[in-house]
Design a protein that fits this description.
15 strands, binds adenosine monophosphate, alpha/beta, Rossmann fold, binds zinc ion, elongated, 501 residues, 4-stranded parallel sheet
Length: 501
């Protein structure tokens, strides 16, 4: 395993900490997944892509990561609180479908988008409805420990009791007095004893369709409980990383901590990671805000705010250009710049792969020149330094562009090859390739049609050039341009690249 000083910003301690997994090389990571009652928007995609990068980089460093990302298919109410309709049941009623049809439809859609964005599937993708028994058991455990009470067929977490020993608000920085200040006094008629209490289990009204039997009667689990249960089941009582968007810090993650501590007495998570928001005109993109852009709308350009279509990899590159803890505003200018940057990097990737194939035939030195060896080491160290600094993809990308200059120079022979030996050049090229493909998860978006046409066009072009048939050369250049490509006539030969304009 690579010996790296990876630092992670921990939202709980509010500082960067050295990453030291509990059971290295094994790492447990839990990320809150989508509530599957509608299509995911680009904001959701940003968060899931950020954790894909965490997963990929830890894998790259040699850790064996068990990555759990749940599907919320029950218990998340329209209000995001304890009262109201279930988001999935509401949609099912509107469309006259079974709730599980809604769940399946949007789970499928979510998976398709994750695939388009080249996000790797998690190791386990558990559902809330698949863990009702465990949620009932955890509720019983919290009751037994005295941190919950039953009231009229529902069970609530007892925040006041918890506060006698623990700190509710430690993650989000919320202060309980302030939380309840805005709310009206409970008059004793309510189910809850204290306004900050939250539901572990809710009694189902007769019209509530998603319901299960429990020791307290028919009901359904509170939204926060599923994540406590599933993370503990698959990763243990204490695990390494828990992630989600920063809007989940309160109440969702604060409640998760309280539930786990209430049940087991131990804090569940070593490193809490929260991603910042994707914004549109400075406002958080959100379903409830009504400013969502869907991936399909971006990929087709079919949205009032979009001047053109942008590809999945352009979107991915756009996201990676900003560190996950900074806000990111989506604009046409930023997307166009991202398209350019992405194509430049992919052109570099093609060049690096070609150069790697040629290593055995290149005029290289037997021993690397000491300066070149040092310089290569420094260039690569810069990429790692970016990722080691709390997964700073923006820094890593800037470092990759520095390496790209070097690789392009070596390819077009403006930089001499003879200071390199095979090992040094191979390390430079393979690390560059591995970072783009495996760590950043960027891939070439070549269509089948293009893959078939381009080699043929290139052969005809070479022939026309050889025969000094310049009319045909111009026509062929036009064909390349129409495909978004350019022909490159270099000292070292003729090749094609993506047009970066
Ligand atoms: P949801 O299905 O609404 O619970 O959201 C799934 C994930 O997307 C959660 O981790 C949210 O925090 C995250 N999320 C929601 N809106 C945004 C946004 N505008 N930018 C980044 N992440 C978001
Ligand atoms: Zn969760």
């Amino acid at each position: 395993m690579r010996n790296h000083q990876l630092k992670i910003y921990n939202t709980l301690t509010r500082q960067k900490e050295l990453f030291q997994p509990l059971n290295a090389p094994h790492v447990g990571m839990y990320v809150c997944g989508p509530t599957v009652y509608s299509d995911v928007h680009l904001g959701n995609c940003r968060t899931f892509t950020s954790f894909d990068i965490v997963f990929r980089y830890l894998n790259h460093l040699g850790y064996k990561v068990r990555y759990v990302r749940n599907i919320t298919d029950v218990g998340h109410l329209v209000s995001d609180a304890d009262e109201g309709e279930d988001k999935i049941a509401k949609k099912a009623k509107l469309e006259n479908l079974e709730p599980m049809e809604i769940v399946q439809r949007y789970t499928n859609g979510f998976h398709q988008v994750m695939y388009q964005l080249n996000n790797i599937s998690p190791s386990i993708e558990p559902t809330a409805t698949g863990h009702i028994v465990e949620q009932i058991e955890m509720t019983q455990q919290i009751l037994k420990n005295g941190y919950a009470y039953e009231s009229n067929g529902s069970v609530y977490f007892d925040v006041k009791k918890y506060l006698e020993k623990y700190n509710y608000g430690e993650l989000s920085g919320r202060i309980v007095e302030e939380l309840v200040a805005g709310q009206r006094e409970l008059d004793g008629q309510e189910e809850k004893r204290f306004a900050a209490d939250f539901a572990l289990w809710k009694k189902a009204n007769p019209e509530h369709i998603m319901r299960w039997n429990s020791p307290w009667g028919a009901g359904f689990p509170g939204w926060h409980l599923e994540c406590s249960v599933m993370s503990r089941k698959y990763l243990g009582e204490t695990f390494d990383i828990h992630g989600g968007g920063m809007d989940l810090k309160f109440p969702h993650h604060e409640c998760e901590i309280a539930q786990a501590v209430g049940a087991t007495g131990s804090h569940p998570v070593r490193y809490w990671l929260h991603t910042n928001m994707l914004t549109v005109n400075g406002q958080r993109m959100g379903k409830s805000v009504g400013n969502s852009i869907l991936p399909a709308e971006l990929f087709t350009g079919n949205h009032a705010l979009l001047e053109e279509a942008y590809s999945p990899m352009t979107l991915r590159f756009f996201m990676l250009q900003t560190h996950y803890r900074s806000t990111m505003d989506i604009t046409n200018d930023a997307l166009k710049a991202a398209k350019k940057g992405y194509l430049k990097l992919i052109n570099g990737l093609k060049v690096a792969k070609n150069l790697l194939l040629q290593v055995p035939t290149l005029p290289l030195a037997a021993e690397a020149n000491e300066n070149i060896a040092k310089e290569t080491h420094a260039l690569l160290a810069e990429v790692y330094a970016g990722m080691d600094d709390d997964f700073n993809t923006a820094m890593a990308i800037a470092a990759l562009f520095n390496i790209l200059k070097k690789i392009n120079g070596l390819h077009n022979q403006s930089i001499k090859l003879d200071g390199y030996n095979a090992a040094t050049l191979e390390t430079l090229l393979t690390t560059f390739i591995a970072f783009i493909e495996n760590v950043l998860g960027l891939r070439e978006e070549e269509s089948v049609q293009m893959a078939q046409m381009v080699p043929v066009l290139l052969e005809i072009y070479k022939e026309a050039k050889l025969n000094k048939n310049y009319g045909q050369v111009d026509v062929l250049r036009g064909h390349f341009k129409a495909l978004g490509l350019v022909v490159k006539d270099m000292k070292t030969g003729i090749d094609w690249a993506y047009d970066e304009v």
